[in-house]
Amino acid sequence: MKLNAKTDFLYRALIYVALHPGRLATAREIAEAYELSHHHIARVCQELIRHGVLEAHRGRGGGVRLARKPDEIKLGELLYLGETNPKVID
Questions:
Q1: Is the CB of residue 88 less than 8 Å from the CB of residue 47?
Q2: Of 20, 34, 41, 79, which residue is most buried, by most CB within 10 angstroms?
Q3: C-alpha span between 86 and 23 (Å, rounded)
Q4: How far apart are the C-alpha atoms of 63 and 22, rounded to whole Å?
Q5: What is the pLDDT of residues 2-49, one digit of tens each?
Q6: How far apart are CA 37 and CA 80, in angstroms?
Q7: Quick check: helix, strand or coil at residue 34?
């Protein structure tokens, strides 16, 4: 199965945040870790926040972290989210 770029970025953002529990991760930090566009990572993080997968904390020292326990996040839900509206990344 070939995934579109949006789904790939959604999964990468989620993996990065899950691998760094107990602290906030910024979109810039995630983008630099994977050598991806900050703009694209910020957009997928916003979408993950809207769907309750991530929670955001604004201001100095802000960032994102998991809004649910890892075992409550269904990869199929993210696959559907990423594949149904791929234009978010284009």
A1: yes
A2: 41
A3: 29
A4: 12
A5: 778 888 999 999 999 999 988 999 999 999 999 999 999 999 999 999
A6: 22
A7: helix
